[in-house]
Automatic annotation (TrEMBL):
Positions of transmembrane segments: 21-45, 51-75, 87-105, 117-146, 158-174, 180-197
Xref: Pfam families: YitT_membrane
Topological type in the membrane: Multi-pass membrane protein
Signal peptide residue numbers: none
Hydrolase as UniProt keyword: no
Lineage of origin: Bacteria, Pseudomonadati, Pseudomonadota, Alphaproteobacteria, Rhodobacterales
Subcellular location: Cell membrane
Species of provenance: Thioclava atlantica
Protein name: YitT family protein
Domain of life: Bacteria
Keyword terms, alphabetized: Cell membrane, Membrane, Transmembrane, Transmembrane helix
GO CC terms in record: plasma membrane
InterPro entries found in the cross-reference section: UPF0750_membrane, YitT
Length: 205
């Protein structure tokens, strides 16, 4: 059996990418709802956006969308147009979903431990779906890769340093127990990404 010369097994179709981005952003939306409902946060730009939303009273979606704007040029330079477009769409979807879904889905009881763990799991699954389809939620990861290319400073270290800054900032504006539960959720998320995000196991982008 021969393969059509028009087919490309190493690239997702438009339909596959669309469902991947939609699924990924919906899962991360659920994660944000769980965190917000329990007054928790996470790392990266999403975490900073949550903390700022608690401090200012502004919506997470608006803050998250705005904070990501400066990173798109670097995304284009570092990852190309295809990745940048998918990332812009993913950020816009997440920002929009987090504005809409609180009106459709509310939790009567949220223990911070359950919220932290479930938020870490759902965010991890959502991010893996986005990575699998050549997208991200923008932010620090793009800068980290850019600095790694330019200076040799490891991307993982940049992300860790940024997360440390987010948690340090949170210590001054949120109760200590909220920060500690948030740290648990961030650890769950990072473990899921660390174990499962391996490019050598992927066959499509």
């Amino acid at each position: 059996m021969t393969m059509s010369r028009h087919s490309n097994p190493t690239r997702h179709s438009l339909v596959e990418d669309s469902q991947g981005l939609l699924t990924g952003t919906l899962l991360v939306t659920l994660s944000v709802l769980l965190l917000h409902g329990a007054g928790l946060f996470t790392g990266q730009i999403a975490g900073l956006s949550l903390v700022l939303s608690y401090v200012t009273g502004w919506s997470f979606g608006a803050i998250f969308f705005t904070l990501n704007l400066p990173f798109y040029w670097l995304a284009f330079r570092r990852m190309g147009m295809r990745f940048t477009i998918k990332t812009v769409l993913s950020v816009a979807l997440l920002s929009g979903f987090t504005e809409i879904f609180p009106q459709l889905l509310q939790f009567a009881t949220l223990h911070p431990a359950a919220s932290a763990v479930l938020a870490g799991v759902t965010a991890g699954a959502g991010l893996l779906a986005l990575f699998r389809h050549g997208a991200s939620l923008g932010g620090v990861g793009i800068v980290a890769l850019y600095l790694q290319d330019k200076t040799g400073f490891k991307a993982g270290r940049t992300q860790i340093l940024f997360d440390c800054c987010v948690f340090l900032f949170a210590l001054f504006v949120l109760p200590l127990d909220k920060v500690l539960w948030s740290l648990l959720g961030a650890m769950v998320l990072n473990v899921i990404i660390l174990i499962n995000h391996r490019r050598d196991r992927y066959i499509a982008t």
